[in-house]
Inverse folding.
């Protein structure tokens, strides 16, 4: 089935629910989705200069953050609403929830509304894998995965799909999280090792991924834990006052970021001076800047998530939805017979009290 709205159904917008998203991902296959999504993100990083760019609009509180992440390439517009509330897991809720909209710039009409809780997990992992494609040591197969919460399995699957990583060393301060991760990844082509300390987890790792959730200045990795030649994928430090790495690691590393004005506020580099040098990932992907230059180099991807990645994810889902029936149509847009006669819609609505009042008057 190909989704093409007819002229008499322009008020209907495809909506991808959580249920539909799971159907779509499982029908295509998780690794294929991650690989294809990585490709879409890579394409959009290559045309980075086409996009409007602004740091996300954030409303911070003691409990967490609510953010809007908008961007446009001049033809389409996309935004994501997303929260980050680490305390939510203690109340049986998700730490992160999200939804997004993809729209036509030419007429302003939305083309797609979708859940983005699952989609954000997929695009975060895909972006990590894309960065590692350019920054990690060649032939990397072993990854330490510190923080075994909701993002961990997605990271593992993305690195397997993009780089062939198949040896995972798992650690979380919460043993239950590690058991969950171990259970979910068993039988999916990984050699899994449960570690009792973060120091044990990083032993022999080519790549170190940190994906913890607590909103605090934390030191998940200390300087003595990071040897030469590794690639660090720092995912968890993604808002003001929230970090995972000791400052000394940053000063030893070549740091790569998505959008410096945002990352300097939210990322690991909030610990550094404003003028500390960083490289932009899009320039590496576009061949303007060298990523990994020599074997002993420590590379650090300071990942906070940026709106262009959500745009890529929305674009990907829109393309896939048009080939499937994994959506419902929402009666979202007013569509009067005469575009200027919006009030007339109310008058002509079956059982309209306004029409009854007019007749009575």
């Amino acid at each position: 089935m190909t989704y093409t709205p007819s002229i008499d159904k322009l008020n209907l917008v495809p909506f991808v629910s959580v249920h539909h998203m799971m159907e779509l991902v499982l029908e295509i296959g998780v690794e294929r989705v991650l690989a294809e999504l990585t490709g879409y993100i890579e394409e959009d990083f290559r045309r980075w200069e086409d996009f409007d760019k602004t740091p996300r609009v954030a409303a911070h509180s003691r409990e967490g953050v609510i953010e809007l992440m908008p961007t446009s390439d001049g033809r389409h517009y996309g935004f994501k609403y997303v929260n980050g509330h680490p305390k939510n897991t203690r109340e049986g809720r998700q730490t992160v929830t999200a939804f997004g909209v993809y729209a036509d710039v030419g007429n302003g009409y939305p083309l797609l509304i979708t859940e983005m809780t699952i989609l954000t997990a997929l695009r975060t992992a895909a972006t990590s894998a894309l960065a590692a494609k350019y920054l990690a040591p060649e032939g990397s197969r072993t990854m330490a995965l510190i923080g075994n919460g909701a993002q961990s399995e997605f990271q593992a699957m993305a690195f397997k799909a993009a780089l062939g990583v198949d040896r995972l060393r798992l650690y979380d301060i919460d043993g239950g999280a590690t058991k969950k991760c171990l259970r979910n990844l068993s039988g999916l082509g990984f050699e899994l090792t449960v570690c009792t300390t973060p120091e044990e987890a990083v032993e022999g790792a080519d790549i170190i991924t940190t994906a913890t959730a607590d909103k605090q200045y934390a030191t998940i990795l200390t300087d003595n834990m990071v040897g030469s030649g590794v690639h660090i994928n720092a995912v968890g430090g993604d808002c003001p006052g929230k970090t995972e790495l000791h400052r000394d690691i940053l000063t030893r590393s070549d740091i790569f970021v998505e959008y410096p004005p945002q990352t300097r506020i939210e990322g690991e580099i909030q610990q550094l001076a404003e003028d500390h040098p960083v490289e932009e990932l899009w320039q590496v992907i576009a061949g303007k800047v060298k990523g990994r230059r020599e074997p002993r180099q420590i590379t650090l991807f300071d990942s906070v998530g940026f709106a262009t990645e959500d745009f890529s994810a929305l674009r990907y889902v829109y393309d896939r939805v048009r080939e499937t029936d994994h959506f419902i149509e929402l009666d979202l847009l007013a569509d009067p017979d005469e575009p200027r006669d919006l009030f007339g819609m109310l008058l002509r609505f079956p059982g309209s009290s306004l029409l009854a009042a007019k007749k009575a008057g």
Observations:
- The chain has two domains: 7-118+310-348, 128-305.
- Residues 124 and 220 are 20 Å apart (CA to CA).
